[in-house]
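Section 5: illustrative case.
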C-alpha cells in the first residue's frame, strides 16, 4: 500500500487530550496529545507538510499539503522538546476513551475543568 502523504505515529495513547480555545486551535479544531519530539515518528513524502508560524513565533503548526488537515505542532528553534499531535486524525475510538481537558488559551492559560 502506498504511503499516505503524512503519517504520524506515537508510542502510546496519552492519558489526556487538550482542547484549547485560543484563536488558532478553535479554527483548526485541534485536540492535542503531548509528547517529547523524540517519541513521535512522522512519515511524510517530500513537500507533503506545510508549516505555519504566527504570533510570538514559538510554534509551527503543521498540516498536510494534500488534504489540509492539521497533523501536529512543533516548537520553533530549540526552546522546547515538547510537541502536540492532533488526535482528530486518529480513530474516534481513541478519542472516546480518553479524558479531554479544556484549556483557556484565549485568556487565562488555565484549565477550565
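Designed sequence:
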Amino acid at each position: 500500500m502506498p504511503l499516505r502523504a503524512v503519517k504520524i505515529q506515537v508510542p502510546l495513547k496519552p492519558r489526556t487530550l487538550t482542547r484549547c480555545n485560543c484563536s488558532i486551535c478553535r479554527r483548526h479544531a485541534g485536540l492535542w496529545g503531548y509528547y517529547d519530539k523524540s517519541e513521535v515518528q512522522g512519515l511524510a513524502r517530500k513537500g507533503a507538510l506545510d508549516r505555519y508560524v504566527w504570533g510570538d513565533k514559538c510554534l509551527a503548526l503543521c498540516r498536510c499539503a494534500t488534504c489540509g488537515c492539521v497533523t501536529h505542532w512543533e516548537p520553533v528553534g530549540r526552546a522546547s522538546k515538547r510537541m502536540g499531535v492532533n488526535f482528530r486524525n486518529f480513530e474516534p475510538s481513541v478519542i472516546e476513551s480518553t479524558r479531554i481537558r479544556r484549556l483557556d488559551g484565549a485568556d487565562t492559560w488555565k484549565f477550565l475543568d
